[in-house]
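Two proteins follow. First one:
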Amino acid sequence: MLMRIHKLLVVVSLCCSSTVLAEPMLPPAVNRKVDFTNDVQPILKAACTECHGAKSQKSGFRLDQKKAAMAGGELGVAIIIGKSAASPLIQRVAGIGNEKPMPPEGKRLTPEQIGIVRAWIDQGAIWPDDGAAGEATHWAYRPLVAPTVPRNENPDWTRTPIDAFILAKLREKGLSPSPSADRRVLIRRIYFDLIGLPPTPAEVAEFLDDKSAIAFEKVVDRLLSSPHYGERWARHWLDVSRYAETHGHDQDRPRPNAWPYRDYLVRSFNEDKPYGRFVAEQVAGDVLFPNEPSLVPALGFLAAGPWDESSLHSIVDDTTDKKIAQVLDRDDMLTTVMTTFVSATVHCARCHSHKFDPISQSDYYALQAVFAGVDKADRKYDPDPSIYVRRQSLMAQKAAIERGLPMEKLLAGDVRRRVVAWEASTYDRRARWRMPEPHAVAAKQGTKLARQSDGSFLAFGTTPEKDTYSFAYQHRAQRVAAIRLEVMTDPSLPLQGPGRQDNGNLHLSEFRAIVTRGTEKPQPVKIRRATADYNQDGWTIQHAIDGNPVTAWGIYPNVGRTHQAIFELLEPLDLKDSDSLTIELDQLHGGRHLIGRPRLSFTEVANPSTIQPMPERVVTILSVFPWLRTDAEEAELARFVLSDEVARQLDLLPQPQMIYAATNDFKPEANFKPAAKPRPVHVLRRGDIHQPIEQAKAGTLSCVPQLPSRFDLANVDDESARRAALARWLSDPKNVLTWRSIANRVWHYHFGRGIVDTPNDFGKMGSVPSHPELLDWLACWFRDHGGSIKQLHRLIVLSATYRQSSSIADFGLRNADSKTNPLLVDADNRLLWRMNRGRLDAESIRDSVLQVADKLDRRMGGPSEKQFNMSPGIHVTPNVDYASFDVDNPANNRRAIYRFVFRTLPDPFLEAMDCPDASQQAPVRASSVTALQALAMLNDKFIVRKGEQLAARLQREAKTPDEQIQLLYSLTLLREPTAKEIDLLTNHAARYGMANVCRIVLNCNEFLFVP
């Protein structure tokens, strides 16, 4: 018996403490120094990586990458450095416990092999960062060190260090660069690149006449200083952020407050904001720069993508579907952040560790945890710093008062003085006190009756069980000529009231007044007439005094404000101190339309229709005179006075502006409510919400060297601290991905293709750099020179590489067998032996047509222009009609960046010109050439009208048809027409009109492409 107990204890001990008692059952660690590459890696490769390597990661565990191996998988950490006996990896390969020994098939590890792995773990599990494990060997994760600029092999051609790198690659292939482009081509190229508009004929002439060595530099500097530069480059950023002004999905509801983010981008590019700060502002500008409230719109970046209104707004909290919707919404945020700023496809690790890149599932859910406390919603902000500071101070005071100030503070001298001053300013001490006293309220327990500072009563609280409110007033001597009833809105009521019905309706069936004089029998008070400031059709105020309980005064809540009715008495009542006046409000049909917040008051004014509505500030005072108040009542009054003072000060401030952004401070609506603190996020086995493994700690990628991957937060419930930590990680000078990503992205927009031609994916499934040394040199130069995007532009566009001609006419196929023919060696121009020719993007086409027609509205900023007619839809999504929109509406003349972007209902003309779907990121825009585009450029209503307006301009500014054709070419193609072109087009104009000629020229490749 004792032996069986001993055996049982041994088994239990093995299960609970493998560190101590399991060690004797393990093969001992070898007694020598172990090297990972020579000793350990061959063992792992032979026995483990088939199931836990690049192709397969069972249980979410990888053993071919250092970071992933150390992070563990779905079952937790596998390698405990310095403690091999306690490491689950050793226990599994040794077959300890009830689990099947690893590997499950094939030859198991020998005791000698287990001893080698044990020794490696005990000796610190040293795994070289650049070893054969592989993740650090990938070019994107290597340390960012500026390479040496290659020796200048052609001083006559090179202008910047960029040219030395390009030339070195060309020489490796036996190639040479192309000659410089024609100056007309060059000025058109730089104008579209930097501001997205063509130069005017005068600007072209000025450049051609400037024979100085820095003529092109002067044009570049002028364009970089242009306000239109910010508009052009903000458009690129909107492509990667998936900006639109509707939610997308099945309910594509408009977002009227999205546009401040667009304006923030335009300002930021024009101000040449340092890139590190630009990144940080869009993730956590509200936290990192709290005294700069104008940065709040930067958070529109996190909310720029689609939002699933059906799931996040309507589904009940804590349900599986709601949790899934929240996971997907956070996935949208982290995907946008990580693909945009560090070109990493982290979202591929939602269900398992990344199949190709060193990104673990744990990393993915660490990023989910960063955004666990914010949603996409309208957020208030004050652009004016002084107003922001004032509002924040008042809101802090309000919160302190609402939390409850201590009694001694409320009764302190300073507060008492405020109470006295308030009472003195509120009441006329020479007149008799007119504050009525509550006598009785017949309603459900819990309904409150609060006295107003202006001498009225306000009912609020829970819904009464009965259909009647009864208010009894005990007055001091008073003359009453009329009684006023106010029905008030309130956020706690359905649709904000005024009634408590689910649709917010109010029906007042009957209004009665009863006077009681002393001990006499109560008598009804006759009402001469009633007036109201609002009457619903068929439900007028007269129905409230007609004695018929079926009829009623009705108010529909969409009117959206407090309303009042005045009941004039047939004869004024002269009330004595012993008299009382009772008011009864009857509701219709058993409380279905109960009043939510009625307020009653009375007046002796001869013409009660002139009475102004009373303020809504409420005070509860049980005794009127100071000498009758208890300390508790005095404290309550003091609390009201302080709150009233703060409310008055807040009312004096201008209304805050709104931005659709990431926030946890927004008005709840239906089942869409802000998170009081970050929602719990768990690592999910196979991404299944029903299979949580462990709670995720906020953090980011483990594969970026020299930066911690998990955030050490003082308060884990502080949502803002999580975003701030991620913002610092992203903008850190040591983050090799951030600086490579932006250098490549800017290069892409200048050359039509990045050094890495997958700008959003620097992983193994993305492209490899065509010029890796140049990319690193640019990233280091940009980072170390203040992160100025304008200076990066300048560096690139002033290079000889950028100034090359795009023509291939000089090469042809004359030397088809030559190894130096670039058309054979580098047909797709990856080595940049010439400039890439590209078509104008959709917005540039539209803006250019407006400019040459002299109709471009250059106003900047503000709410977006709806260049369509919109009407309510059957459900939520409105009906949008582009075809019927007035082509002469001034809204049509704004730059395309200021148009209202509908996510699921795109502009047909721009869509034909390859304007991207705003529901998807567009790091690289498609550029097609189709018959549909040619037809649109000939027949679209916008183009037809602008062609007519361009023809009218030609006729205003030039006399003869020949001169008009010359002006047309100067405006659109920036050159003189040939004699043959003049002859052809003047003949065509004579037959079909100059407007048709204009459309022909606008449709030609020379206008639509930039060589």
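Second one, unrelated to the first:
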Amino acid sequence: MSNKRLFLIDAYALIFRGYYAFIKNPRINSKGVDTSAILGFTNSLFDVIKRETPDYLAVCFDKGGSQDRIEIFSDYKANRDETPEAIKIAVPYIESILKSLNIPVVVKSGFEADDIIGTLSKKAEKKGFQTFMVTPDKDFAQLVSENIFMYRPMFGGGYETWGIDEVKKKFEVTNPLQVIDFLGMKGDAVDNIPGLPGVGDKTAKKFIAEFGSMENLLNNTDKLKGKLKEKVEANKDKGLLSKKLATIMLDVPIEFNPTEFKFEVNNTENLKKIFLELEFRRLIDSVDKTLGIQLTNSTKSVTQNNSKSETIKLESQTQKFSAGAGQFSLFDSQENDIEKIEYLRKDINNTNHYYQKIDTELAANLFFKKILNQSFVSYSIYSKNIDPLTDDILGIAFSWEKNKCYYVSAENKDSIFFFKKIFENSSIVKASENIKTDIKILKKYGITINGKIFDITLAHYLINPDINHGLSLLSETYLNYSKINLQLILGKGKLKKEISNLEENTIINIACEKCDIILQLKSLFSKELIDSSLLTLFDEIETPLLKVLADMEYEGINLDVNFLKSLSNDLNSDLIKLENKIFLESGEKFNISSPKQLGEILFEKMQLSKNPKKTKSGQYSTSEDILVELSKKHDFVKKILEFRSLFKLKSTYIDSLPTQVLNKTNRVHTEYLQTVASTGRLSSINPNLQNIPIRTERGKQIRKAFIPKNKDYTILAADYSQIELRIIASMSDEENMIMAFKNNEDIHASTAAEVFDIPLKDVSKSQRSNAKTVNFGIIYGVSAFGLSNQTNLSRSESKDLIDTYYKKYSKLKTFISKQISLARSNGYVETLSGRKRYLRDINSSNGLIRSAAERNAVNAPIQGTAADIIKIAMINIFNKFIEGKLKSKMLLQVHDELVFDVYNNEMELVKSIIKQEMENAFSLKVPLIIDMDEGNNWLEAH
């Protein structure tokens, strides 16, 4: 075994980890700079140095993303949020810190740090080195060998080293290289790697055990059964693509020269100057202790002169800690107790608690008598966590006093009877974590949740919409308490336990601890909702909507699977015809989905471009934007784009939707997420029914598959007409727009008449189209450049049109300026219902970042208000249906549209209710108007 040890640090992984450790209480210095990411990374770097005293060390950065992966899959990492500005600010400082320590920064444009670390690790191994990859990213497990290890920072402090045995155990593989197959099968939501639909951790490990590799699985799909077989066979190309995307590259054009990686620090003066500028005074004190170098007198005096301000800072932090709201660095290893708060976090083992199972008749009688006299209880349903529509309740925990909780098993009918009495008692306020799921689970037992409810996830979403709302994070952030890790208890792979088979004491502790945490968080969040003026929004919109969505999800929608199969066959025929046309024009057969083969056809054989763009690996780029530009001159490229579009339509929707029909109901049950979009809009998943295409003829056909319950029902759709423009007209008090809406004029023609200064009757089709682009573009901050790209106007003509628009609609311009000013002053903007959208980058020194925040300052209140209005309408319609005991049901919400399954005998009454409630959901200065239609399927009704 080699005694030469190389440590390679995955820079951004540790920078992001450090930044989010301070997310609740960011470190802001006296100059207003957010230093959280810098401090988090530096602490972890020093921790590695102190623990391991590495011989060789380097830090690897991404630059420009992986061009090769983007080339073969344009959506790779496309769902990632904008990098927080604090991290963008941090990188130059971190590079300066590394430079002052003589630690090399390794970066290669067009490649990710994963690929750089992979390449260096293998090259170092050939030269007799042991390499330790410092990263929490499990993807690196594929690189582990006899001399290459993962060195993973653990939550709460410390590190764990993964060698071959650890990787085999954790991923249930026989060779670390199979980690690539595992990742390809299950996909990666973070990197937007699709994977095989329906395959998660458990199934991927089962496939690895049985088939060994992705390729072997795809060659033996005849051994699979049911819908899983259909999904895998329909997505073979997606599986192979996913494996390729998950493979860490080992051929980045960089060299490993050991002398350049030797870790030797000769002087720390520059480092101390950087720390002094950043106001990391405690780190200045620890520099020489960590690196083994004596302080100079000058630095000592600087540190002493700042001791007073340091004491004040510590006192301030101590006050935050005592209030129970602080969250500090996961990597900080300083001696000060405040800096080591993560290591002092409470858990079930060091907290006094009383968790009891109600297991005798006497205890049950006393318990139910006591609970029915409470005005408030928290609860936690303990189930198998499979599907709320099919799940069985194993037991429920209840609490009404901190650190005290009672667990009631659902093993007998008496328990269900008492559960019903508790949940249907309207005088008891009930709090839990995900009540929408609970409503669906309880419905199976004929139990309804009556009275006031408090969903802590929903409450926190309103309080802080931009971060994660998981119970573990909330507990650690607000209570400084680490909840039991259920995944660790259950284990993985073949040894994984069933939830129902856990030891009784473990079950009681898991259920009661969760219930106890909910109780404590409810107390904190109730106050924060009041302090933030969000209680009305919570009580009158979000909480009532929760019950509406639960009912919609439970109902589901009927799907014509045979129609989709027929459509799939038609589309397959079209693809074959289109493929043959492409082959005929190109003069040969090739894989149209292969960027490499397509690039050779386009740029070598057909020579459609004189200077074709290439990727970093030297392959021709065939990205969407390049093909769109080429298609303006070449019909052949239009066929390529059409092929791509049809292929995606078939695989993503037409072939996928039938596999998501629930066997128990023969219906599709989408799930609506209330706590994802910071604007307040709902999100649809499993399947996503909000993104079904509507602009192309083939896309529209998919809506034909959504049909009524039976012949006694009809699909009805109702959507708001130009609701965002009506809201901006009302919020800005712009008279010309208000008058146009009140007169029921065509708003785009009316705008064209204003800006082109012509009578309404003389507006041309082209003028109306340009005005429409400006109308909608204003909400999103359209520029002259953007407008010229979307219209046939030149950039100067676009600028003139925008300038004229603002002259004619001066109040609209004033409104936009006011919104930006409010955002700068308050740090947030609000909808008409009081929903807050926080804009942390509104005062950024970076112009591009600041401009994006300014656009959000304008469009967030518009989008958010539109979202709030349709939510109010949904609640009111739902209540009217309940009051009237109607058979008709609300099924779907797609942004500004609602879809219903209407019992034919109730059609006129339902139409009247929908029109009344949607058009009167909110009072604006202009009328709200809906368009409504009906049919034998969603397309006919749209």
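SUMMARY FIELD: The chain has four domains: 5-259, 354-532, 557-668, 733-860. Residues 293-343 have pLDDT under 50 and may be disordered.
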